[in-house]
Amino acid sequence: MAGIEVTSLHKKYPDGTVAVDHVDLSIGDGELFVMLGPSGCGKTTTLRAMAGLERQTSGDIRIGRTLVNDLPPAERDIAMVFQFYALYPHLRTRDNLAFPLRAEGKPEKEVRERVAEVARMMQLERLLDRKPQRLSGGEQQRVALARALVRRPQAFLMDEPLTNLDAELRADVRTEIKHLQAELGTTMVYVTHDQVEGMSLGHRIAILNKGRVEQVGTPLEVYDRPASLFCAAFIGSPPMNLIEVQVAEGALRGAGGLVLAPPDGLPRDRSLVAGVRPEALEVTAPGADRTVPARVVSAEALGDEIIYVVDHGGDSDVRVRMPPTARFAAEEQVGLRHAGGTPPVYDTSTEELVA
Amino acid sequence: MAITIDEAVPVSATHDAPPERRRGGRGRMVVEVVLLTALAVAMLFPVLWMLETSIKENRDVYAVPAKFFGFDLTLAHYKDVFVAPGGGRSDLSGSFLNSVIVAGASTVLATVLGVPAAWAYSRFSMKAKKDQLFFILSTRFMPPVVVVIPIFLMYRSLGLIDSKLGLVLIYAAFNVPFTIWMMKGFVDEVPAEYEDAAMLDGYTRLQAFHKFTLPLLVPGIAATAVFALIFSWNEFVFAIFLTSSQEVRTAPPAIAGLIGGTTVDWGLVAASAVVFALPVLVFAYLVRKHLVAGVTLGAVRR
């Protein structure tokens, strides 16, 4: 087991695109670390650089205490799970699992024992004699995980391993991965563009955008105080309401008369945006205490909750998350009130958190 | 009474409609079949005439009016293709052998150069990749005959005129761009993750390509090679300009050379044309599935 240190990692492709722009990451020993971001944000390139499949333009990567910049992938003592599983199509499950061990030149007796052990752990015994094309997507992914496990590497690198599974199976395998990681205590770096996957799996999450790290933090930190407007818009479904505000009379005041509690240490004379989660707002009967008048634009009943899109006379409509017991129809006149704590506030010019 | 009439009207209407539609369908089908048959006859007549002429006795070949049926059969023309009048190998058979050597060697060369290039273009990011690929493709934009004089002059200074090597090189030069483009499509279809996984298992990138990607490319390589082979086999312009001696000449100019004397032995021309057409037909038949795969590649999203 080992942590992974990435220092000032930079990757520029020959065609001039900068995929990773001086990224620093420090992944702890035994940590499940998620790299989250939209496609093209550099998360996969960073992971492939860790694996040794891409050579970085500059910067250092350490796995454990070893500087691995010049080591080929096989000598980095890591295992990787791919989006398309990459099971060798001409080999049965048994031989696919044994392949990395045989490539290392392990004695056949040990190979057989370790394959049997990992097959038991991942419940693959009845699939051992099948070839990949006779396995379902979920089974293929379990075999791919098992093939990574069988090497007992210092770290696992996972490149969007659940993308090709259907939704139901995805949740199952997600739980399985989390459980497995907790049980083995292995360092795991997990790349995904799916925020639900990132939030539910990660001990810590790094949010990447355009080759840069926007924020690193626990899922709750990332959710409660996104470090930039990008993170604020990326995390959460529906995302944060970004409301332009002014500081006046000891409160944040948005267009339409919405009043929010001000955080400490707000800079003066800058244009500010407050990030308000949909659940920090409330739709009430019109004229209720501390509300501003508003109109329901649309209501999306999702079963466990209702998302109201509300026009309160501000610059843009806001989204409000309400329990399914709420009963407001579209076009109904209602009241809107802020019911949460102090919201994070961003500077519109730097797009970064200021308080 | 009124009720039965009312009922009868829609009933008769529904009875009328389908036959009308059927008649329309049948009429259309008849027109289609007639047109297609006419087209097929027009297209296939030269082939049929070639086959007939190649097995007709000479007096039937020159008979006026021409004999479609009831001519005397002979295989003498086929014998003439391979055996010289005085015994021994004929000149034509030598040309066929040259064709086999030149087409085979140029196809192998184009495949050996083109497949790794296609792999590299598919897998690696490089400067101005699209421009490079466009440049490669652009060499196929012009008709080859445009460059035949410059090539002739270059070959003369290089001493490649009237040599099999010269033909092999020029055919390979035309086939490499084609091979790169067609193979790139096939390589794109093979997930790069196979190679990544193999590299994590301790193989070098080239070993990974050789051991895991290459076997999955075999159908694509077969289809591409057949296209390249057909091009080299059929090529006429360069063959006639760049070769002159009997020892080097390939079959297309050799067969064309049979026509143009004071008398033309049409039986021999037809027989050699049949012999010339057969290998390509056989190859195309053997890889017909892959040919379709090659032609329709990329038409369907995975």
What is the fold's blueprint, element by element?
The complex is a heterodimer of chains A (355) and B (302).
Chain A: E1 4-12, E2 18-27, E3 32-36, H1 43-51, E4 58-63, E5 66-67, E6 78-81, H2 93-104, H3 108-121, H4 137-149, E7 155-159, H5 167-184, E8 187-192, H6 195-201, E9 204-209, E10 212-217, H7 219-224, H8 229-234, E11 241-248, E12 251-254, E13 259-260, E14 272-276, E15 281-284, E16 292-301, E17 306-311, E18 318-322, E19 333-338, E20 345-347
Parallel strand pairs in A: 3-8, 3-9, 6-7, 7-8
Antiparallel strand pairs in A: 1-2, 1-4, 4-5, 9-10, 11-12, 11-14, 12-13, 14-20, 15-19, 16-17, 16-19, 17-18
Helix pairs in contact in A: 2-3, 2-4
Chain B: H1 2-54, H2 58-61, H3 76-82, H4 91-123, H5 129-138, H6 148-158, H7 164-189, H8 193-200, H9 205-234, H10 237-242, H11 251-257, H12 266-286, H13 288-296
What does this structure look like?
Chain A: Pfam families: ABC_tran (PF00005), TOBE_2 (PF08402). Chain A: Residues 4-235 form the ABC transporter domain. Chain A: This is ABC transporter ATP-binding protein. Chain A: InterPro entries: AAA+_ATPase, ABC_transporter-like_ATP-bd, ABC_transporter-like_CS, ABC_transpr_MalK/UgpC-like, Mo/tungstate-bd_C_term_dom, NA-bd_OB-fold, P-loop_NTPase, Transp-assoc_OB_typ2. Chain A: Keywords: ATP-binding, Cell membrane, Membrane, Nucleotide-binding, Translocase, Transport. Chain B: This is Carbohydrate ABC transporter permease. The complex is a heterodimer of chains A (355) and B (302). Chain A has 355 residues and is of the alpha+beta class. Chain A folds into two domains: 4-233, P-loop containing nucleotide triphosphate hydrolases (Rossmann fold, 3-Layer(aba) Sandwich); 239-347, Nucleic acid-binding proteins (OB fold (Dihydrolipoamide Acetyltransferase, E2P)), CATH 2.40.50. Chain A has eight helices and 20 strands. Chain A has a six-stranded mixed beta sheet, sandwiched between helices. With 302 residues, chain B is mostly helical. Chain B has two domains: 2-79; 90-296, MetI-like (MetI-like fold), CATH 1.10.3720. Helix content of chain B is 75%, strand content 0%. Chain B contains 13 helices and no strands. Chain B has helices at residues 2-54, 58-61, 76-82, 91-123, 129-138, 148-158, 164-189, 193-200, 205-234, 237-242, 251-257, 266-286, 288-296. In chain B, helix 1 packs across helix 12 (266-286). The longest helix of chain B is centred in the first third of the chain and has 53 residues, at 2-54. Chain B is globular. The termini of chain B are far apart.
